[in-house]
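Researcher: Here's a chain I'd like modeled. Treat it as a single chain, no partners, no ligands.
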Amino acid sequence: MTLALCALSHSPLFGINDPGPETINGVVAALDEMRDFVRDFDPEITVIFGPDHFNGVFYDMMPAFCIGSGAVSVGDWGTEPGPLPVDHTAARQLVRAVLEAGVDVAQSERLHVDHGVTQPLEFLFGKHYTQPIVPIFVNAVGLPLGPMQRVRMLGEAVGAELTSWGRRVLVIASGGLSHDPPVPRLEGASAEIAARLIDGRNPTLEARAQRQRRVVEAGKAHALGDSSFQKINPEFDAQVMDTLASGQLKDADAWTNEWIESSGGHSGHEIRAWLAAFAALSTSGAYRVTNRWYWPVDEWMTGFGMMTALQER
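Model: Modeled as a single isolated chain. C-alpha cells:
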C-alpha cells in the first residue's frame, strides 16, 4: 500500500469559540481516530495540500500552486512558528514531475505557510513534529482562480510521482468545507488593506492580534445568526464529500467558481485542497473511504469535515 489520505477542515477558532460539548467531544474523538489511522499507516513522508489566508502568500506574487522545497510557519493562531521539516529532495522531485506532466507549478525555497497547513499537521503529529513533509500551496483566496479541472490535474500529477516512489506516503488535504469568514478581498479594498494583501508579511504582534480579535468576534456573531455572514451549507458539504468518496473526480470539473462561492461561501474554494489530495490518491487505483465525519459548526464559521481513505488492496 503506497498512499493513504486524511482530509480535514481547519479552523482558527478551534479551541477559542466554544460550540458545546457534543461537538467538541465528537471532533476530538474523530481526531483521535484519525491519529490512529496515521499511526497504523506509518508514513515515511507526508504531502499536504493547503491554502493560505494572506499570512504567507500575497499578491506581490500569487501563484495558483506552489510546492515548498523549504517552508516556514508564520505561527498564527497558536501554531508553532519557525522552519518546517521539509524533505527538500522529495519536493524538488515533485516540482520536476508536475512540470513534466504539463501543470504549471511554482517552487519556493522558503514557502511561508499559516494555520491552513500547520494546524492539521499539529493535529495529527503534535507540536514540534519531525515527520518529513512536502507542503503544496493551493490558492483559494487570491482571486482570480482557475478552473477545478486544473486542480484535479495537479493532484493527479503529484499522485503519479508519489506512487512511483514505492514509499508509504500520507496525503493530507486541509481546508473547507463551506465557510464565509471575514477574509478581505483586493477588489474594492482600501489603500491600507490593499497594501496588506499585496505584501503583508511580518505584521506587528498588535496588528496580528487585532486581526485575530476580529475573526473571534465574527465567529461569535455568526453563531448568533448575524445575517451579514453566509450560512454554512451542509448540502454543499455533503455533495463535495460524496463526490470525492465516489471516486468520480471528473464530476468536479463542472464545479464553477461562481457555484462554489454562492453555495459554499467565499472561502468554500478551499475544497480545492481536498480535490487535489483525492486526485493524488486516485492515481494508485481504486480507493475506499474508511471514515467520514461532519459537523456544521457556527461558532467556528465552518462546515467541519474529516475523511480518511486508503487504496483498495
